Predict the 3D structure of the following.
Amino acid sequence: MVCFGRQIFGTGTRNVYAAFQKTKCLHSGFLGHGDMKTNPLRQLPAVNEVLESPDVQALLVEFAHDVVVAAVREELDELRKQIRQGQSLPQPMGVEDIADRVRRRLVHELSPKLRSVINATGIVLHTNLGRAPIAEPAAQAAYEAARGYLNLELDLETGKRSSRQNAIREWVARLTGAESATVVNNNAAATVLVLRSLCAGREVIISRGQLIEIGGSFRIPEIMAVSGATLREVGTTNITRIADYERAITDRTAALMQVHTSNYRISGFTKSASLAELVELGKRRGLLVIDDIGSGALIDFSRFGFEHEPVARDSIAAGADLVLFSGDKLLGGPQAGIIAGKKQLIQTIEKDPLMRAFRTDKMTLAALEATLRLYLSEAQALSQIPGLCMLGMDLNVLRKRAERLAAQLRQIKGLSCQVNHDIAYVGGGSLPDQAMKTVVIEIEARQVSDGELAHRLRIGTPSVVGRLRDGKLVLDLRTVFERQLTELVEAIRSAVSLAEPPQP
Ligand SMILES: *Cc1c(COP(=O)(O)O)cnc(C)c1O
């Protein structure tokens, strides 16, 4: 590779560059060929030479100058490192080749970090994949809110300033039977806010069996500490009676709290006080009763064969002063924490300075309102909220879908697949012990290991995430949207047929 190889002069028509490169070449020639041979690092052009090349100049239309310069430096550093480590460079490595590598580096580095994923895990509420997908009308409402103006804090009737909470207050009240409601960013924030605004400096009694960790460092004792309320744990892990709560009451007690053990179950010899008992005790002793129900079911999930999932309306009916739940678990809306209950308590909560820090933005509110409105008709909620559709998907429908897709996948050379029964879980800290029967496609590529296949699918476009089980990649179509099926086949086809892992 004398004088950086033929490629430089091969461009011919690019006169200016050719002239420029020629000078450079003469210059290196002056140093002598011997020098080039003894120092292979000299095979590489200087940063400026790469920068001046037409291919890199073209990149400057799309990318900022300093970003391109940095990428050229990094690419050359990388190549130098390879040479120093005694690796031979893929030949030829002229300015144009380097320019091409720089372009690929930039496209890779500057592509969006958040990308669409086809969720083939079958886990409906997959925390790592963004939990609940929202309904079309909700996504549409968020889109409209995002790209324009709306009456977020303006009463259109009077022209006066209003609260952003008004948009959802009435819907939550209607759907849960509560007097009022307010919304913050998530249920963790809702818990902190409620405890801080109503119980700071005083004690809150909770059963030892309910001191849960939800994940991502949401631990009831820590949340309590942050809020400034004092945790008073009663009972034992498996047994807590109403008498245990009563005995723990002092003049410092502010509330009795029940926390739904969303992501685990205690079975066997167990007992816990019912919400009705807590309400009776709270009334008698003048204490608040706070019910953190977690997943925010607005309908009875026993229709899907799931048990023990508390419904917000039932908690209010049982007399809880406040009920807290997430917007993006079983409710199927955007990430949010909903606090429903007594009007006067909601007013106190909304006066807390943290309310401002925890408040939701206009897109979330718009999406949440649209989601809640779907629940005005249960049939509508069941047919339009993706999570509910997925949970309610008939096993025969699922099997037909899997067989249809498997037939397409069998056309792919080097791939074998099989439709099978399996078990799935809801995920997202909901219904932990309640397995769902499901139908999956197991795929195996002759040339590619299961781990490698899973990796290729993950880094592909669109990204596909499945489950790995017993050396096979398992795809559960329950969580794959109908509109994604063609893309899914194509993604698998390119992952299997690539000889090399794809360059993203
Ligand atoms: C999930 C959950 C939370 C946390 O809700 P986020 O919306 O994830 O902040 C709190 N409490 C219970 C009981 C939960 O299930």
The chain has 22 helices and 15 strands. The CA atoms of residues 205 and 249 lie 8 Å apart. Residues 186-188, 214, 218, 259-260, 262, 292, 294-295, 326, 337, 429 surround pyridoxal-5'-phosphate (CB under 6 Å).
